[in-house]
């Protein structure tokens, strides 16, 4: 299947191209294409939509904030139930495909209403649109992540699958960041144009992406269950009691926490501490571009070192880069630029490896319990990232306010230094904690190979001979 991403871009020399179990790069790119509309809709949802709806459609910020808060809570509640439901689904189309297809339709229709509102917009109409938007979003995202872990049972192939998704997501996010900038150049201050451009990206990509994703790989038959059927609530409690999963969740929570603290404060640091407001958006884009290039680099490292060792290495690089920010002064913009480049190259290394590890942990759970709950495992993983994003905003902004920083007034040197310390030390501590949690993770390639052999032997024993 033709895509715009050549497979050579992701190619690693550590695994021969002649390996029959190696997944096609073209098919991986096609499978990952659903990340384009999902990511393109996700970025403006938290960054641009609230401001546009307030300025252009007259809704109060308090009302918009409440609606979006309730929407995110609804999204969080949906995640584990969607994971459990897709795990239990049995159809001639597979377990994951029906949810992705149905969710894609709901997502597409609700996105049109969200990005191209018609007539009078009210709090009720916005709440209804967000209700269906998050329903469609979750019905795509959770089964897709679970299916990603099922395309291949091989330890390193799962790293390749996660890499394709990470890079294509980053490209979609970069595009979504550029479109509002173009809108400002064409018609400054035109919020409706920004909304239309971002919504247009979602609209033109959703149907082709659905087609490519659903057709890229055959969905494997659901494993034969040997465990007793349990209520969803009991299953969720069982999954949350898995110590290996909790380590992965904690590590990913810390990664996302550090990234979000940095993202929430970078504009303030560049604008007020560095005194370079013209670079506030550009520096973020600069970091993003190098983040796209980093995915294949970390994949190659992961193929050589293993997943958890690579996650630790990436997090320690993040710690060093963020500690380096402590010596940045308003006169050393070049140093900040260099550290931002390094930050971009290290960005996402932990997320990439940890996402790949989740599927391995789900395999171990299936061997021990007899039930395949990959969808539920990935839903909990997704929920941890969303929680970290909310906590980071709730910590970083009040903290810099408490130390005296205020973007509306002339700040003292002490307040600006405090802003820099939070910007540097908050992510550094978070990434160090992530590395500590995942260090020495016992589920390595050798142990996972044993688990897969045992699962395959059990499957063969349970399937009656023809």
TrEMBL record:
- Note the superkingdom of the native organism: Bacteria
Instruction: Provide one Gene Ontology cellular component.
Output: plasma membrane
Query: What keywords are annotated for this sequence in UniProt?
Result: Membrane, Transmembrane, Transmembrane helix
- The regions listed as transmembrane in this protein's record are 28-51, 57-78, 99-116, 128-149, 161-183, 195-214, 279-299, 375-400, 420-443
- Single Gene Ontology BP annotation: carbohydrate transport
**What is a GO molecular function of this protein?**
symporter activity
Tell me the protein family, please.
Belongs to the sodium:galactoside symporter (TC 2.A.2) family.
Name of the molecule in the record: Na+/melibiose symporter-like transporter
Question: What organism is recorded for this protein?
Answer: Sphingobium boeckii
